[in-house]
Specification:
550 residues; alpha+beta; 6-stranded mixed β-sheet; 18 helices; 17 strands; disordered N terminus
């Protein structure tokens, strides 16, 4: 509000537009009757996961010693740096640093002194000494002892005490570190510095999860599933005018017109531009002339006469994020992908700025993050709550392919094997559906599947959404299984003009252009004999339709 009042009139209007867009999304979306169903589990998890960072450090140190690190050595990690006091984005710590410290604060360091006889490493956390006016700008100043207890380390020193710390060790010791964007402090140059060996040990350590890590990941999957179900209910509620004004509707499928010509005579109560305009704002807008469709930030043009106030992908994103935050997951594991129609065929679609259209599918790939650990879940469902025959066909191909892969997940299986299974299943099911033609041998040797399915079957998940992983699955690894079938216009046009065109039944495929993409993604814990799903949002089409028809 202060920024709005002080800025120039033209900037003020732009600021007001952005502010009102955000306000509209939040005020309309939030249903204050919703409560987090996992409040008790979150409270229990805070107790049950105590000591998780100390256990992570002990595991890393033990693996380091097993891989030849001498006891006369230190492991030293620099956290993410920079001045984040005025940052536009929330601070997120380096995952390697977070793994051994739990400290999500900038410009921290940590040193682990390795010890023999299976003793855990001695952990010393280095923090910037707060300035005299730190409390004025940033709030409470924690003492060293408070920080020591908070992050469960053996000692806390200020970063300006690093030279004194280094002096306590002989210069003959080796310091192992991982190259990062933050330079190693000069005070450590007395040691022999090894930058090549620690990363591989860290990868092995992080790839397999402890029981406390799995507990956290189970909880964030529940929270993310709660948010996914909420997104379905949110769209369904819009369809039934539960939220918003009585004229709120989805954009018809054939609507591709631009925003109507600008008029300076818009009534103050009009919400055509989501701006309740006073005289100052109206005069400022008039001085700017007719705005282009991009005048409304990050919003795709729509036919306003057909849909005065359509529902946008970013509104679904906003409600998803709100549901996660309701359960203490205030960070997202990655930028949500909310793609309707053809946008669902863009693998890393991030604009999230199109209006939802009746008859389209919407692909929502999103997950929250709880205390550093994230999930990765994707669901694809119809905007209007009812799958068409064609949508059911493609969805069933993906769901069956996922089931085929999941039944082969277990410790000892290689990722390459799971990829082979997924590609073979999708090839067979596309052939059965009459979308491609030829022998299985021809289709596989020509990789016809990757016209419709162009990514791998999954990845590890943890502190990073694409977490450290090994080529062969091991028990207690946490992974995704995420097959998909996409009708990407670029790939289809490319295939039609290329040698693989003969394998495509174009009369059939052209019926599905505009479908976008279908991806189903769930999280599993690998066991010695199979896997356990952590995802709780339904993937069955009938169950999804039931949610959206409540």
């Amino acid at each position: 509000v202060l920024s709005f009042c002080r800025c120039r009139p033209t900037m003020r209007v732009s600021s007001l537009l952005v502010l009102c867009l955000a306000w509209t999304s939040l005020a309309v979306a939030i249903d204050n009757t919703i409560e987090c169903p996992y409040a008790n589990e979150i409270a229990v998890a805070k107790i049950a996961t105590a000591g998780i960072w100390r256990e992570n450090r002990a595991r890393l140190a033990a693996l380091a010693l097993q891989n030849g690190f001498p006891t006369t050595s230190l492991i030293f990690l620099t956290g993410s740096g920079g001045d984040h006091s005025l940052s536009r984005y929330p601070f997120r710590q380096s995952s390697n640093f977070l793994y051994v410290s739990g400290a999500n604060m900038p410009n921290y360091y940590i040193s682990l002194q390795l010890r023999a006889n299976n003793l855990p490493p001695v952990a010393t956390l280095f923090v910037p000494e707060p300035s005299a006016d730190y409390a004025i700008w940033n709030g409470h100043v924690y003492s060293k002892e408070q920080l020591r207890l908070m992050f469960d380390v053996d000692d806390v020193l200020y970063t300006n005490e690093l030279a004194k710390y280094a002096d306590a060790f002989p210069a003959t010791w080796t310091l192992y570190t991982i190259t990062s964007s933050v330079a190693l402090p000069n005070e450590l140059n007395k040691f022999t510095i090894n930058r090549s060996l620690l990363q591989s040990v860290m990868t092995i350590s992080r790839a397999t999860k402890s029981q406390k890590e799995i507990l956290l990941m189970s909880l964030i999957n529940k929270i993310s599933s709660f948010a996914h179900v909420g997104a379905m209910e949110f769209i369904a509620a819009r369809l039934n005018d539960t939220y918003g004004s009585a004229h709120r509707r989805f954009v018809p499928p054939s609507s591709h017109a631009t925003i109507p010509p600008f008029s300076a005579n818009i009534a103050p109560e009009s919400d055509d531009y989501h701006v309740p305009m006073d005289d100052v704002a109206r005069a400022a807008l008039a001085s700017l002339g007719a705005p282009s469709p991009s005048y409304r930030p990050n919003v795709a043009p729509v036919d306003a006469s057909a849909s005065p106030d359509p529902v946008y992908e970013y509104e679904v994103q906003s409600y998803f994020v709100y549901r996660c935050a309701l359960c203490d997951a205030r960070m997202q594991a990655y930028l949500p992908i909310v793609g309707s129609g053809n946008n669902g065929a863009v693998l890393h679609y991030k604009a999230n700025n199109d209006a939802l259209k009746d008859g389209d599918l919407i692909l929502v790939d999103a997950a929250g993050e709880l205390w550093g650990y994230g999930a990765d879940i994707t669901r694809t469902y119809p905007v209007n709550g009812i799958y068409t025959v064609e949508q059911r066909l493609i969805y069933s191909i993906v769901l069956r392919a996922q089931a085929e892969v999941v039944k082969n997940v277990r410790a000892g299986v290689q990722w390459s094997t799971l990829n082979t299974i997924a590609r073979a299943a999708i090839t067979q099911y596309l052939l059965d559906a009459g979308l491609i033609q030829g022998t299985i041998a021809e289709l596989q040797s020509n990789n016809v599947y990757n016209i419709f399915y162009m990514h791998s079957i999954g990845h590890s998940v943890g502190l990073d959404v694409h977490d450290s992983q090994t080529a062969t699955l091991e028990a207690n690894q946490v992974i995704t299984v995420e097959p998909g079938v996409y009708f990407n216009e670029y790939l289809l046009d490319q295939a039609k003009a290329g040698p693989r065109s003969r394998f495509i039944v174009w009369s059939r495929v052209d019926q599905f252009r505009g479908t976008g993409g279908v991806r189903i993604e769930d999280i599993y814990v690998v066991t010695s004999s199979g896997c356990i799903s952590l995802t709780e949002v339904p993937s069955d089409m009938d169950a999804i339709e039931k949610i959206m028809q409540k």
